[in-house]
Each structure stands twice: as structure tokens, then as C-alpha cells.
Amino acid sequence: MKKKKMSLMAKRSITGYIFIMPWLVGFIVFYLRSLIMTANFSLSEISVAVGGGYNTKFVGLQNYLFAFRAHGSFKQVLTTSVGNMLIDVPLITFFSLLMAMLLNKKFKGRTLVRAIFFLPVIMNSGAITAAIEMSRQMLAGGLSASSAEIASASSGVGMAYYVQMFGNLGIPRNILEYIVAAVERINDIISASGVQIIIFIAALQSIPGSMYEVAKIEGATAYETFWKVTFPMVMPHIITNVVYTVVDNFAESEIVEMAYDTAFNDINYGLSSAMSLVSTAIVCAILVLVCGFIQKRTFYYN
């Protein structure tokens, strides 16, 4: 009997499973048990035992109902966190792609400039963040209230003037609000773009130079080359960066801080678990929708 040869698609599927095997084993061994315990805690009332450990009392959906109906700020913080995520992710993604295209060009000092753009990743580490926060607190003590009020008032007047000016030009209100929200968090957007820029640089360097040569021979402009060559070729990496950005934004969001404070400051592990699962479910739903939308328009070069 002839042995049935394995198809190329089956070989690639096996390669893919082998590639994710370390993550899958780590998820099952380390994370799955914690996830099951969190789901159990969210349906229980947790009390710390006198001799150590904890006791659980099943209460059903009481923690979820309390979070949405009785908690003073959960819904507001959750809505704000998700709204900020939906604003930041497109901006961070396209800003990272733009900067990667600029940094991929050949010029003197390119390595130094790339290192500077990766500095925000280092600056966002725990020790550096703590040191910066301490410095800000020390500087805040020497800043008079009057000067702070003047700075706040002047920036508010300037922003209101430009919003009114562009509104008079007929730009839709929702677009203006999106732009204003982006400008207000421009520093956070730049700080959160370091890893994405490096991923896009790697993607740009993997594009065959022959494709650009053909586009040039055919008389394509730089604009046409971007949309017909560069953008389709980096689409798979856009999915990677979107997933990374959503997860990173969620990890630094206010809803995660609220769940942490509820668990370790208010000693309410059941409510904290419910908050964590609700926010995690929303983030997973966003990832499925966004990745599914991008996946249909993604070109994979073999």
C-alpha cells in the first residue's frame, strides 16, 4: 500500500502547532487553574480563615449584579477604559507604522534614532516609572497653585479655539472629538509605540526589494506603492500589533487598577474576580471582532 502523503497545508498546520506548543503548555499548567479559580471566586463570597487560607460561600451572580447595579464607579470606569482603548489602538498602530517607515530609510545616525524611539519601553518599566513619579511629586511641591491654574486655563482656551475653528469648517463633531481625545493623550501614544515600531521595521525589511522595483518600473507613485505594496505586505504584522496593543492597553487600564484595589485594599476577592472576568471577556470580544475584520483583508506572502 502506498503511504498517503501529507499535504503542504497539513505540514504547515503541524508546524504552527509545534510553534505554539510552549505557550499552550504554559497556559494549561500555570494559567488555566488560576482562570478556573477566578471564575469560582466570582460566584462566591470569600472570607479569610482565622488559621490561614480562605472559605468560599456560593452566591451565584450576586457579585456581577452588585458590580453593574450597586457599585458606584465600575460601569463608568469600564466604559472609559474600553473607550480609551478603542481610541488609542488605531492611533498607536498607524503612528508605529509611520515611524517604522521613516526609521527604515537609510540615513546617518539611524541606529541611534531607533534606540531613542525604543526608550519609552525602557522608561515604562516599574523601577523607572517609580523614580519618575517620585520626581514629579517633588517638583509638584514647588509649583504654585496659581501657575498651575494659569497653565490649565491657557491650554483649555487654546484647545477650545481650535475645536471651534475646525467645527466652523464643517468637520463632523464626532471626528473632532476623536482628534481632541488623541491630542490629549499624544504622550501616552508615543510611549506605547516602541515595541510596535520594532515589529513594523522587521516587517518592512522582510518585503522583497523586487516588488518595489517592479512598482517603480510600472510608474507607480509613492502613494500608490504604499497602498499596493507596503500596506498589504505588513497586514499580518498589523494583526500582531493590534493584539499586543489591546492587551498592553488593557493591562495598564483603570479597570485593572480598580479590580486590584478591590481585592487587596477592600479585601473583596469575589467582586474583584467578577470585575476581572467581565473586563477580560470584553477585551477578548474586541480582539475577536477586530482580528476577524483584519484577517479577511490580510494578504500572506509565501
Major β-sheet profile: 2 strands, antiparallel
User: Based on helices, strands and strand pairing, what is the structural class?
Assistant: mainly alpha
Show unreliable segments: 143-157
Mean pLDDT: 79
Residue share in β-strands: under 5%
Looking across the biggest beta sheet, what order are the strands in? 1-2
Compute the number of strand runs: 2
Share in helix: over 70%
Please tell me what the overall shape is.
globular
H and E order? HEEHHHHHHHHHHHH
Overall domain count: 2
Structural description of this entry:
The chain has 302 residues and is mainly alpha-helical. The protein folds into two domains: 159 residues, no CATH class; 64 residues, no CATH class. The protein is built from 13 helices and two strands; from the N terminus they run H-E-E-H-H-H-H-H-H-H-H-H-H-H-H. Helix 12 packs antiparallel against helix 13. The chain is globular and about 75 Å long. The chain starts with 7 loop residues before the first helix and ends in a 7-residue tail after the last helix.
Quick summary:
By secondary structure, the protein is mainly alpha-helical. It has helices at about 10-40, 60-70, 75-105, 110-125, 125-140, 145-170, 175-185, 185-190, 195-205, 210-215, 220-250, 255-265, 270-295; strands at about 45-50, 55-60. It folds into 2 domains: about 60-110 and about 190-300, no CATH class; about 125-190, no CATH class.
